[in-house]
Input
Amino acid sequence: MTFTRRNAWNGGGTFEGNSDLAWYARGIREMQNRQLNDKNSWWFFAAIHGENLNGDLDDGGRSKWSNLPGIPSQALSPVPPDHIRNLYWRQCQHGSWFFPPWHRGYLIALEEQIREAIRGSGHPGAKEAAKTWALPFWNYLGSEKERDIPPAFTQKQFEGKPNPLYVEARYGLFDEGRVYVPPVLKWKDLEIPINQKSQSIPNYINTTRRSNSGYGGPETSFEHSGSPHGGLESNPHDLVHVVVGWSSDSADFKKGSPGFMTTPQTAGLDPIFYIHHCNIDRLWALWNKDPNHNNPDSDSWLNGPQVLGKDFIMPLPNDDDWHFSPREVSDLATIKEKYRYTYEGLEEEKLAEFVDPNLERLKTLGAAIPAELATLNLGTMETEEDLDLIGANDAELSLHGEEISATVKLDKTGKNKAFASLENVSADNLPDKIYLDINNVRGAEHALFIGVKVFDEPVEAFSLFGLGMASLKDGNHAGNGISFTVDISKFFDRIYLEGNHGETADVPVKLNAIPELPEGEKLTIGGLKIYRQKQ
Amino acid sequence: MALSKRKRRQITLSVLGISAITWLVLLVNPGGTTFQHCPVAGIPLCSEDGGGLSPFALDLLLAVNPIPSLIAGWALMLVAMMSPLLIGPILHVMGQNFKRRRWRSVSLFLIGYFTVWMVVGIFSMAMVLMLFLLIPQYLGVAALVAGIIAVIWQCTPFKQRCLNRNHYHRSLASFGWLADRDALKFGLTHGAWCVGSCWALMLFPMLLPQGHILAMFIVTYVMIAGHLEHPEMPRWKLRFPKVLWRAFLYQTRLGMKRLSKTN
Output
């Protein structure tokens, strides 16, 4: 049979109205009673995504599990032996084209564990429920009501005991007592929209590994340096993690601790994490519905990181292990029959409309667009062109408090090539794309977002989900931090149309910490670069 | 990563090609990569009592192991063994620089990197020559001791720290002399961390009376495989890098699968 994952807001999102949530809570309760070294325990499963049991992250112990509220003793010990930890833990795939398939497999494995836990719970009706139960999804981009976390996650008691779906360390936006996903996060003059615009990105792989330019993420293999995120991962995934988790005591981060959802090393502790990822997975399935959208078909993707001799591994009930690759989970219809599922309403959901950003630029730059080209994809597919560096700020920057300003000096030759591409543009002669790279952002996770302004105009903001781990010198990313890319083509178009391209010698940039950093804390930025990319 | 897939592939194949050619040269003519032990029987240098630090012994040793030959041999060893490890940093340097000065910056990076290793090489060769003079009858023991030190070092947290630092690719300046400085500095620091990670492995083959090239192959495997592993917390650990072997098995299985499909 094919399982159906349903909306967590069905029946008002309460235990009484939505049996999926009630069984989810009962299953979690069973899993939470097991100890850390039990591969079927809630805590082991959380550590598969990420963990900070040793406190090895340089965040003053803020995300160390033993310092977090509501963590029982069985979550902290016994610690499994090295070879088990190396095989299963800290597997999560981020900043990689494996982001969607790895999380899909992770959810499938957790579903199997919850079903088994439900079966073993002894609750009346458990055996029957386990036959059809599937993870619900939180469609926070649906109706206005659905933006709030379903009520079952906010009540503190369930069936006379602490509610497994409730966690104290889920602080919500600005720690104001409400957990929800706003359509736009506003901070002073910066606005961060949280939406599913990434659904209209036509290509899976980032082009030359620029962030947001691909839906699924950049191609990764041997590199360990921490890559930009793909469109789906950037928005809504990263943003929802941070607005739901946030941090306690926003006024003083030294005292506060991050919400579970705020960091990769604690996210798996919060039951809402899986419901959130269920929605992300649903969005991927929806993206695949479009016949113009294709997952990669290369063995490098389909076979997973086997080229490194590793594959994805998840513990299943009955001491079983599931080694899987993206090939086995790329299409919902071909997933192994005993795990196969679909989403409620998937067939009826409308596909995202694609608007080629090149069309808008061509209109702005005065090119005539023949009617038959109005809906064509004019060049957002993966390109073989190098990025050509045309400007740089060579100093390492330190962002204290709220904001830092910097100037990116333009190289005359590169600048002239970029502006030359804006002359006589047409569908056959596309203008260069211009990107601003913000490299090697490092720091502790006291700032939750970083905002970017160019020529004093807010352009984009990024979630700093994963910053702590990426900044760790002896961590997986070797301390390279996180890098971001912003498309600043429109500014060059504007300068060109105003006739100022001759005298423009640099690009002023401002970076904002959102919220501002407490005294003594800082973000460092390795460098700013501007590139042009011929299309 | 600013370079296209096509450009990255070109650079990768070029570097691997340079390494392969250098290996061929070494296989055909190992030359100064191997210290000559006992060229003539009966000469005090090679006697049971050892030759000692006499000028005669030193002259004889240098006659069969000319310094320019030793230095050239060491340089060839470095190019053959280390080049594949430099693909990532070279791509990084290229991506951080204006197109017109990419090869200048890459050259400065390589100068910095190989300068560190050449200095280490000179000290290593001097030490090996000393051992040849002082304890010629115990060179086998010296090789064994060097091998044990290499294995122990392989398991230390210090080695892991050096490996981790080699994965750190900071942003490099792009304009003027600052770009030159950063490229050179990147080469020097990358070289230093590489030395910290691999010094013991590189010393071992120099002391072997035989099987030097085979030892170089094994050391190259261990170094490349170690580099391909993810950075991790430094600690004492039995560290045998399996990644490259697993990758080789995977590629072999894939190749055989493709072959059977076409047949």
About this structure: The CA atoms of residues 355 and 500 of chain A lie 29 Å apart. The two ends of chain A are 47 Å apart (CA to CA).
